[in-house]
Predict the 3D structure of the following.
Amino acid sequence: MEMNLLAQNAPQLRADNISEVMKAMTLEEKAQLLVGGANNFFSEGATVGRAAESVPGAAGTTAAIPRLGIPETILTDGPAGVRINPTRENDSRTYYATGFPIGTAIAATWNTGLAEEIGHAIGNEVKEYHCDVILGPGMNLHRNPLCGRNFEYYSEDPVVTGKIAAAYVRGVQAEGAGTSIKHYAVNSQETQRTSVDERVSQRAARELYLKGFEIAVRESQPWTVMSSYNRVNGEYAQGSHDLLTKILRDDWGFQGIVMTDWIGIRDGLPVIREVAAGNDLMEPGQPQQVKAIVEGVQNGSLSMEDVDRNVRRMLEYIVKTPAFKKYNATNAPDLRQHAELTRKVANEGIVLLKNSNGTLPFGTNVKTVSLFGISSYHFLSGGTGSGCVHTPYVVDMVTGLNNAGIQTTEELTNVYRKYLEFARLKFEADRDPSKWFQREEFGQQKYPEMEVSERCYRKEAANADAAIITIGRQAGEGIDRDVNTEFNLSDFERDMIIKVSNLFHQEGKPVVVVINSGSVVETASWKSYPDAIIVAWQPGEEGGNSMADILTGKANPSGKLTMTWPMAASDHPSTRNFPDYDQDMYQFTDRAVSNRQIPGFHFTNHEEDIYVGYRYFDSFNKDVSYPFGYGLSYTTFEYDKPAVSIKGEEITVSVNVRNSGKVAGKEAVQVYVSAPQGSLEKPEKELKAFGKTRTLQPGETETLTMRLQRRDLASYDESQTAWVVDEGTYSFKIGASVADIRCTATLKVAGMTEKTTNALATKAKLNLLRK
Ligand code: BGC
């Protein structure tokens, strides 16, 4: 009776009565709202938690308080599409979601408009599948090519990362669904990710690891931010007042909620400290966390103001959600239309690395091709772990080529298909059940390659018009990549490329290598053999069709690399301090163990400091296999009439880009800036803006205009804890890649200083790389 009365008199949440609802909340209810709704972290069927009850397979929920009209909201992975279970018990319907191109593929388009379109489509699927927030975009920096989750992230450069992420966020949120930019911050490795201490200078943190997040927050106000598992300069990101309040809110003006990455009570990090630091929501949620918050307030170790501040933010988030607005989810998004979008985006993100003698696009004389490599038949549409999506289908290379009217040689195709069946069965039989990421529900597996006899290679060279060799690589959450078996090609793969190239060339027939990988592989040792090399990335469910579009010239490649492809993995200075590389520093031997199981405390010193990716190779004149920003087209472009001007705080850069070749195409244009001599050492040049032309017909010119702010020219001066723009003349170098600057314009800029909070002081001594 009493309860009923309470319920009757309780205010029901509206957008304009949050204070009133807060007054009516008990301390227990407030604590519950700050902790996700999961009861059982490792429940079956979902990654985690009670979300399994309303949307099976979604990652988590926020707690409902029905008495106050506060609905449960549902959080789903992310980022390459909605990750929910495709089938449900006692339900004949299916719940497949579109597998969009992975992060690197989207970034490689250099097209923020497309990233925004993808965002719209994903936002639509989030809503239609009864969810509220997509746990993405993933935006950690590609500090090193060996990070297992690089495929989910965008680039080694923070401007590309931030601009693409902001566009994705704008797209999703325009649909009335939420995003969670992750993993904040400095989570650029998987090994030991839940405990590792990422030691980084304040400057490298601000200029590189945080910069992308800063851009996304300032330009798109994501509803939520996900704090990462790792420590930064000795403190867990999840409990870091510096990261979650001083930088995120005080410096950048973030308005939304911060949620933890998926973990329970942390060793050495009291729940109350997370709350006080500005972590509004503990995911997936443990009853003990609710208890800890209640007790913290009762015994005075946690202030009621901190709790109320977070509760208010939670309610401000909730009133924006589809759940609160009682969105009528259909469970039937337009998967066909979204599949077309994946194909369009993938086509624009695919990167042509090599195309000798105009081998591509194939002419009409190429009617039958020999398809080598297991990944031709089991094309990898996305990576593994929470970032995988249960797609309705994946178009493999055979199907893609067939759809475009190209046949594959019958015998080889049959043998590979039978082998694939065998490889699947064998994989299942041998699988180590403790390796959760090896389960099919966590993404497609890469099976071992099939031996091919010399006789078979010869027969193929005689019978087919061309050869395509797909080199596949799979990677994902929980494990970093191994140099020898994943970054480098195996002896077998290199041998296959060389043999097929030699034998087909003897017959006067071309050879194309397709790299079906979310991240970088070694190319320097074998790239001279094939005629053409294409990076397909993991381009989503329409992969084979996208590849056929490129191979036949239906689409003209316009993707460019958003990370350096080095000669060797060890060329990146960060490799020295990347786990598992230096066995003395990191003494575990089996990287393929979920890092949750490795005891002990580990650290990663970011001694390369500001020299990440091209900032290093370009400043230290180090050879690379393919530079940052590189990618070929079937046409050529000329750059002319560079201009740069400043009006108020806004700098405008423009350049005329002319299609000087024979077919229509688009060009991604990059603006690098070299700063005048100032008090700080700086990279040779840094990307500050980019743009992409529309489709230009042969002979057509577009004046491409790109904008930035004066503060974007700043470097972070630790001695002043401020962003500082030195006064002087800046060179704006407009290029087709970092190594292919086409023209330059200069601009005199007045100096400026922008004070920041003093945050993330380095505790360990770091031996920072300098020129
Ligand atoms: C991952 C996140 C993911 C979450 C929920 C975590 O292990 O790091 O990226 O969103 O799980 O599945």
Observations:
- Residues 47, 59, 77-78, 135, 182, 261-262, 386, 477 surround beta-D-glucopyranose (CB under 6 Å).
- The chain has 22 helices and 30 strands.
- The two ends are 75 Å apart (CA to CA).
